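Moderator note: this is an archived Q&A kept for reference. The question asked for a predicted structure of one protein chain; the sequence and the answer are reproduced below.
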Amino acid sequence: MKRTPLAAGLALSLAGLLTIPSLSAGADQTISATSASAGAPSVRPESETLRFGCTAHVTDRDRPAVGCRWSPTQSDGAAGYRVVRSGGSQRSVVYASRDLTQTWFVDREVRPGATYTYHLSVLNRAGRTIGEARPVTVEIGRPAETEVLSMACRVRPADSPLVGCRWRPATTDTAVGYQLWRLVDEGERELVHRGGLDTTTYFDDDLAGASAVRYAVLAIDEDGEIVGRSLPQPVRLHHAD
């Protein structure tokens, strides 16, 4: 069975979940801007060298995304950044901004199995290119097949909100334990339970003020990789007035 890296299945949203690649030495893609060919925007010979990197990730909604980061421009004539994405026969501007302090971008409009190339440019006020970076190519992997775990979660009668979840044990012989993840209302995904194969139930009583919760259980092997997962289980809470 092909296994999914744990980091890919549990990645979180951009605010704190989607890691943008660093620009440390050895990981950067750099190029000194040179004069453009006829018919293309010209690049000044004295243009600065730009650093640029992009990495594929999975968001907290289990959707692929690409995060890009670049070094800030030092040019006095710079007025904005532009990122162009090319894939197959298509080429489109996916990011354009005059905010020179914004040096990262997340592209969520990508498809599993596709390959994209990203081009970064620094523009002046006239829209002419005054800096470039070497194009970066990113391959979006396809999600690996894993065992589907059956799970049910229900609200239990109690003075305070209490949800009980039960799931079917994993049948794969590589599983060594489970992780239960929770998403409360529109917040961030959080790990609320970690246990061995002998635990297939969980009771959640830390839901004060919540109105909706989603749970998902993962089966993990000894390397921390996902070998089984459930579909998200939504639960609607009803608080007493």
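Archived answer notes: DSSP finds one helix and 18 strands in the chain.
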